[in-house]
Amino acid sequence: MSTTTAPRRAFDALIAERGLGFGGDYNPEQWSPEVWREDVALMQRAGVNLVTVGVFSWAMIEPIPGAREWGWLDEVLDLLHEGGIAVDLASPVASPPPWLGVRHPETLPVDRDGVRLIPGSRNQFSPASLVYREHAAAITRDLAERYADHPAVRMWHIGNEYGQVDHGDEAAREFRLWLHRRYGSIEALNDAWGTAFWSQRYAAFDEILPPRRMPYLVNPTQSLDFRRYSSDQLLECYRELRDIIRDAGATQPITTNFMGFHALTDYWSWADEVDVVSDDQYPDPASPQAPADIALVQDLMRSLGDGRSWVLMEQAISATSWREHNLPKSPLRARRDSLQAVARGADAVCYFQWRQARAGAERFHSAMLPHAGADSDVFRGVCRQGEDLKKLSSVAGTGVAAEVAILFDWSSWWAGEEPARPTERLRTMTEITRWYRELWRRGVAADVVSAASDLTGYRTILVPHSYIVTPATAEALRAAVEAGAHVVVGPFSGVADENAQVLTSRSPVLLRDLLGASSEEWGAVPDVGSPLVADERWDAGRGLSQPSASILAERLRAEGAEVLARHSSGELEGVAAITRRAVGDGAAWYVGAVVDPEMLSALLGDVLAAAGVIDAFGAPAGILPDGLEAVRRGDVLFLLNHADAPMDIAVDGSHIDLLTGDETNGSVGIAPGEVRALTERRTW
Fold first, then answer.
1. Is 501 found in the same domain as 363?
2. What is the pTM of this model?
3. Do 413 and 391 fall within a single domain?
4. Which residues belong to the active site?
5. Are residues 491 and 598 in the same domain?
6. Per-residue pLDDT tens digits for 465-484
């Protein structure tokens, strides 16, 4: 999507006018009008300037079929506008009222076992149901026609966390139509799906069903295509409602909330359909790796928008209520999480939700205004965040430069985790996360790129696990190396084509010449692991302690590449594990096994050094003090202390901390849980 589009400019204008967005989901329908007035006053006190309204209000607007009750919403929008609070108005289609499912059971989804789900929760709709879509279109059209010109409405929000999957007859009809559009003929489908196996050949599209419960394993390409269809079907629902809102005359930006690396929706296909990328993020406070892992998600959101700023639409101010054991965040932790998102490109940070619910399934999910009210540490922390975001207004609209790219593709993720592989322990997101953590420890931001992305200009390109590699992607990687980039490919990559059919010949077939190495077999590694030994020249002075491989290793052969590490015992004794092939100023590295964290760290550290990658401080990318996160957005250096001890960090030159106003010269102290936002001090 072009950055010059009018809706995008409208979002930029909102941020320029109000400052960085701050607020959350607001559900006034749960409260009396007297509470609404208190809410607006407390929002003003906290510095809230953006709230999402109406996400779950369908039954309030349309309590019986065809009714329209707007009075309460008119009053809420007017109150918010009078209070100077912008509204992201939602089309309330994520949770249909009970009467729709009762009167039209075909609108309800069916699970893999053929069980039709019932009303009484949320998300109880089939994206394929024409009846559901007619009703969703009708209420969205009326909502947009009524409020397109309301001065409070500065954004539109469609649905909520799209991710519904239906295996019923409605889905079967739409899946067949999708397949016909994709393949054109049943012969082409049979070829793509490899239906000669297990006597699965189809005579007509009408014979095909969604991959419901079967006696044994599902055809992996059928499963892959159903995942693709399900994502596309949801996107079609979104587009339908987006276009209805536009046709009603709305000029505001339109978005919907993504869910990070969500397994049911291919956000590469969605990204250009939203005016602003928005995301819901709930890192687990119990995980010591949460800061690095959510940073990866934030880098993804920035990348989906082609480097533009994005919106953190939902997060928790304290505890969630849906984990088995819900650790709360301290106000300091909540503040740091919000500022981390700003550091990685967010121009708005919001929460679920504004006022904590008294009833319903999420009554113990934390909120900006908790059950205890404004006289609480939680609310005082909210007020502090509001003040912080005002101080950071100068970063709005600025970008995060990245010299490193990580290749990630949803279809490859889906296909690479189908059952009946050499091991089900090798998981795409686990490997991507492990590799990314090494960048995070070094203060190196990354762009997440798709299989179709332009790789020009990156110094390093990481491919931790990409089961599918297409000829176009292989060519892009080759061109990048020839232009001087360092490409690192992880195990069990380039195994299959876009139909999930295994490529025959030595693997990875399409990358074999580039890597100068190839494999004849992928094998699971025994639980005791496979010891590795590094080449003396590579390990010189490093002192790797008992390196090993686990989960999966390839029977790898160097074909012109330098061998950096080998298996030292067992059935793979002497077999190459890591190789490097120099190509001009660049190089192609192959990791033919899941190597232990120490060896992975050493390897990626060498790759970054060889490629000349610099960190957020502008220095060669070495490992930072444990728990320090460093990221540069525009000309502001953000330093976040995720450790339990204070830090004193050397920083060249004189700076001013935008959050405190303190001047620094040569070093900066950071208390546990605190954040610094340093901009260079100018003397003119």
1. no
2. 0.97
3. no
4. 161, 314
5. yes
6. 999 999 999 999 999 999 99
